Automatic annotation (TrEMBL), chains A, B:
<dbReference type="InterPro" id="IPR036291">
    <property type="entry name" value="NAD(P)-bd_dom_sf"/>
</dbReference>
<dbReference type="InterPro" id="IPR041694">
    <property type="entry name" value="ADH_N_2"/>
</dbReference>
<keyword id="KW-0560">Oxidoreductase</keyword>
<protein>
    <recommendedName>
        <fullName>Enoyl reductase (ER) domain-containing protein</fullName>
    </recommendedName>
</protein>
<dbReference type="Pfam" id="PF00107">
    <property type="entry name" value="ADH_zinc_N"/>
</dbReference>
<feature type="domain" description="Oxidoreductase N-terminal">
    <location>
        <begin position="8"/>
        <end position="115"/>
    </location>
</feature>
<feature type="domain" description="Alcohol dehydrogenase-like C-terminal">
    <location>
        <begin position="165"/>
        <end position="297"/>
    </location>
</feature>
<dbReference type="InterPro" id="IPR013149">
    <property type="entry name" value="ADH-like_C"/>
</dbReference>
<dbReference type="InterPro" id="IPR011032">
    <property type="entry name" value="GroES-like_sf"/>
</dbReference>
<dbReference type="Pfam" id="PF16884">
    <property type="entry name" value="ADH_N_2"/>
</dbReference>
<dbReference type="InterPro" id="IPR045010">
    <property type="entry name" value="MDR_fam"/>
</dbReference>
Length: 343, 343
């Protein structure tokens, strides 16, 4: 006979307009039977770590025909998680396995789309890193920088939201290649971390700059070869004025815009012509085939201390709504994760 | 002894702000000695045809460090022209040669930068075509479509300002490759011409559309693979909503914006990410190496009637200011040229 246990969940109450608030979500106490439904090939997961990612805000509105689907109001939020397999109806997974994949914002999940789960083999690293440097944000940084930016040694690179889950890695990859790298972030603490921990050549607090164009000219007197775009809006406009001829802009995210009902207009696109700039959006999903190669490269780098990674850890599912909201005010320092359980 | 002859000129009176007006230019009666200055390798040109191009508006403001220089207030406007060599101090050119190159908006010019002149060999075509299909706009269409758009047979192509000097060719190139092609233009006459003369699959008058997004959805129910961008602003915003995944936008011009002191903001750039769009600006100058190859391809096509070209001809240097101004209200139908003299 299957035991029924309590299962706390984070529910999206409704589609969200304007700035995301904690009250757009609610904690709900439910129960769950921890068994694989008869005849099903689902797996029963105990969720350990959950990932807070900016794209999740996008899923909180009604979306049609895009690369992701809307969350379902009244249901738990879903996202990337690291979880332990409690029961498995799929021969690819055994009880006790640790997996990375799409799961629910709840203590236990029954996942039927097991093809989206990835079995974690190397557990000799912090497991939460599979939500960051060893997961989607890591591969995003890797594919975005190496595949989209066409970087060359000696080029000048600017990264916005540079202390975030993706930005901190882009900067380190660019340094490893011999580029000059400058990052922007939203607090003194983050700026200090960019220079001291992640070895950016320079960093600045965009909130303290009256004139972003002037700030960029200070750090890039000869212009920017590569812009790794995470924020959009005013920063993009200032960057366009400071790109070099034949520069490249990899558009990874536009986090400054996700909570706006009417996005800011970008005015300087004419620079794309005068400077022959390539601006290219990308999604990590198109680069999943590179994941094994990336993992094989990055895990030894972390173990050897040649690459470092910063996480911001929220304790307990109760803290998840606040952690997610914090992404959009830049409260987190480094990759934001939520610990549901450590075992 | 050198004869001095009268030389009418079109002078830029001052840097221009806002919408270009005829009164920003003035006609001036001057005189010129039609000889090569002693010890110089200049050529003396009799100007036959002058080109009106949207980028010229850009040169009417103060520009620093761009791909072109500002015009000099108080001096004649300069641009592409077809001219006859009257005297030559450069052994590459002989009296009687017909050349294409940068010349002045005046009856006679003395050009010292003779390396910018190209000797026209095939005169068995309308000479003014060297300002259009056989010149800079032609190579722009060719390089922009084949080199920047990465087109494939069967793809869907949208061209704005489609009846213009560049657009009409892009559409024909796309049809030759087996694409589905739709163009936008600003009058019924232009729209009719796009369908009947240039063989676009569909065309529409953007001025009659309340909702550009809806118009594009009507012609591209499954989305746009390639957008050849000539106008910018609201059209670009509507196109972004209608691009297909992995679509390409070749940014050739943004003529709707050139007379605005504050350009319109573009709001839908987030689509670059969700649809993994590549948006790339280009300038024809980077593709001059393709010019001989292009000419060898296009001249026989015109002679065989497989490609057609529409010109809008203004008679006399006096009509040049009005012809240039007309570009920005879309008065011209086809490539706008000015006839200074036919021989």
């Amino acid at each position: 006979m299957t035991k029924e246990v309590s299962n706390k969940q984070v529910i999206l109450k409704h589609y969200v307009t304007g700035y995301l608030k904690e009250s757009d979500m609610e904690l709900k106490n439910t129960t769950i039977k921890l068994n694989v439904p008869k005849g099903s090939s689902a797996v029963v997961l105990k969720n350990l770590y959950l990932s807070c990612d900016p794209y999740m805000r996008y899923r909180m509105r009604k979306i049609e025909g895009s690369y992701v689907e809307s969350f379902i109001p009244g249901s738990p939020i879903t996202g990337y998680g690291v979880a332990k397999v409690l029961e498995s109806g799929d021969s690819n997974f055994q009880k006790g396995d640790i997996v990375l994949g799409r799961t629910g914002w709840e203590e236990y999940s029954i996942v039927t789309a097991t093809q989206t789960l990835f079995k974690i083999h190397d557990k000799d690293v912090p497991l939460s890193y599979y939500l960051g440097i060893f997961g989607m944000p890591g591969l995003t940084a890797y594919a975005g920088f190496y595949e989209v930016c066409s970087p060359k040694k000696g080029e000048t690179v600017f990264v916005s939201a540079a202390s975030g889950a993706v930005g901190q890695l882009v900067g380190q990859f660019a340094k490893m290649l011999g580029c000059y790298v400058v990052g922007s972030a939203g607090s003194k603490e983050k700026v200090d971390q960019l220079k001291s921990k992640f070895c950016f050549d320079e960093a600045f607090n965009y909130k303290e700059e009256q004139d972003l164009d002037a700030a960029l000219k200070r750090y890039f007197p000869d212009g920017i070869d590569i812009y790794f775009e995470n924020v959009g809006g005013k920063m993009l406009d200032a960057v366009l004025l400071n790109m070099k001829v034949h520069g490249r802009i990899a558009v990874c995210g536009m986090v400054s815009q996700y909570n706006l009902e009417q996005t800011e207009g970008v005015h300087n696109l004419f620079c794309l012509i005068t400077k022959r700039i390539r601006m290219e959006g990308f999604l990590v999903f198109d680069y999943y085939h590179l994941y094994p190669k990336y993992l094989a490269m990055i895990i030894p780098q972390i173990k050897a201390g040649k690459v470092v990674y910063a996480e911001d850890v929220a304790e307990g599912l109760e803290s998840a709504p606040s952690a997610l909201v914090g992404l959009f005010s830049g409260r987190n320092i480094g990759k934001q994760i939520v610990v549901v359980s450590r075992e």
